[in-house]
Design goal:
With 363 residues, the protein is α/β, with parallel strands linked by helices. It folds into 2 domains: 6-174 and 283-360, Rossmann fold (3-Layer(aba) Sandwich), CATH 3.40.50; 178-275, Rna Polymerase Sigma Factor, Chain: A, CATH 1.10.1740. 35% of the residues lie in helices and 15% in strands. The protein has helices at 120-133, 146-157, 176-190, 207-221, 224-230, 250-263, 268-280, 283-286, 290-293, 314-326, 344-347, 349-360; strands spanning 6-9, 14-15, 21-22, 26-32, 42-46, 72-73, 78-79, 84-88, 139-144, 162-168, 300-306, 331-336. The strands form 3 sheets. An 8-stranded mixed beta sheet has the order 1-4-8-5-9-10-11-12, with helices on both faces. A two-stranded antiparallel ribbon has the order 2-3. Strands 6-7 form a two-stranded parallel sheet. Helix 4 (207-221) packs across helix 6 (250-263). The longest helix is centred in the middle third of the chain and has 15 residues, at 176-190. The relative contact order is 0.13.
Length: 363
């Protein structure tokens, strides 16, 4: 399936939760399948921290498909023979949607750290502009990790439009531990000598800081079982240690590779802004409690967690499910047994496909 990324421009000021405004916001998005005459067969896929609009198919000349290609397409979980599937790059990102690497129309140079701090509510507000432009009337929202947070925000902010909500490997708010990991990543970037207060777009980039941030983040996406199975304590291409501070172990080499490939495709400023938006997301605080937050929701919910996910553990999903059940809402929950850690939502596509198909078949 060949696809192309399109751009939609919002021709009005976007008012942010912080009280600031953004002019001339552009949204990068892709669509798969066709919208029906009633405009009620749409699914909005919501990407995770470092994702983008390219969820499925191939761009011309690409060797790899989109990040959720196993889940999107003809006969797949998000069946493009039946649904009009949409995926957009989030506000603050660096893959086509307006973010800190975009040109500030007031200055003619990149925003950098003059870009306003954003929230998940702001991200969803911008997505709503795109959905209205596409003439969608009813919507299914689905996302993993940070995408699940956006799905929940959609249900709370635009509940009359959302029929089904699919929340995968996510949480209604971060734990202190998760905020701590994000803080370490941000500090690695901010401490890089090349960061230059965010003004590095025409100079040396803070690659070391961003690579370390990615390495720290990647540890949280795996789990002890997965890391032992993948690396154990094996040395990298040798049988004995170097007795210096070069890379000795396979796991060190793997993390270094993940860090280096990440700096080639992501912007350090975007990492700062998006992780801060995730940190701020707290439904219980905003609505006094989770139970009060979902009191008036009309959507049907599917919540999926993974047994080895210690970043967003099943206990956090169960907290969400409990709040929905106490409000007598229509909610289904499944914990998938998997050794893949948090990344399981990108890997365990066969099990997820069966669960999601069944959920979407319910009226």
């Amino acid at each position: 399936m060949l696809v192309e990324t399109k751009l939609f421009k919002i021709n009005e000021l976007v008012h942010l939760e912080s009280g600031k405004e953004l002019p001339q916001v552009e949204i990068a998005y892709e669509t798969y399948g066709k919208l029906n005459e009633n405009g009620d067969n749409a699914i909005l896929l919501l990407h995770a921290l470092t994702g983008d609009a390219h969820a499925a198919g191939y761009h011309q000349g690409d060797k790899k498909p989109g990040w959720w290609d196993d889940m999107v397409g003809s006969g797949k979980a998000f069946d493009t023979d039946k649904y009009f599937v949409i995926c957009s790059n989030m506000l603050g990102g660096c893959k086509g949607t307006t973010g800190p690497n975009s040109i500030n129309p007031a200055t003619g140079v990149e925003y950098g750290l003059s870009f306003p701090v954003i929230t998940i509510e702001d991200v969803v507000k911008v997505q709503k502009k795109l959905i209205d432009f596409l003439r969608v009337k009813k919507l299914i929202v689905a996302g993993g990790s940070m995408g699940g947070m956006q799905a929940l925000e959609w249900a709370l902010s635009y509940g009359d439009m959302v029929s089904h909500v699919i929340v995968i490997a996510s949480t209604p708010r971060l734990s202190a531990q998760s905020i701590a990991f994000n803080a370490v990543g941000r500090n690695a970037i901010l401490s890089d000598p090349n960061f230059n207060n965010g003004n590095y777009y025409h100079a040396e980039k803070p690659e070391k800081g961003l690579a370390i941030a990615r390495m720290v983040g990647h540890i949280t996406y795996l789990c002890e079982e997965a890391m032992h199975e993948k690396f154990a304590r094996r040395f990298q291409d040798k049988d004995s240690p170097n007795f210096n501070f070069d890379i000795d172990f396979e796991v060190e080499s793997y993390l270094a590779h993940q860090g280096q490939t990440f700096v080639d495709r992501f912007d350090a400023n975007s990492y700062l802004y998006i992780t801060k938006a995730v940190d701020y997301f707290d439904i219980a605080k905003k609505y006094v409690s989770l139970e009060k937050a979902f009191k008036d929701t009309k959507s049907k919910y599917l919540v999926i967690s993974f047994s080895s996910d210690w970043l967003f553990p099943s206990s956090q999903s169960k907290e969400l499910v409990k709040a929905l059940m106490e409000n007598k809402k229509d909610v289904s929950y499944c914990e998938i047994q998997s050794p893949c850690g948090h990344d399981a939502f990108l890997l365990e596509y066969e099990t997820q496909t069966r669960i999601i198909r069944s959920f979407l078949c319910t009226d």
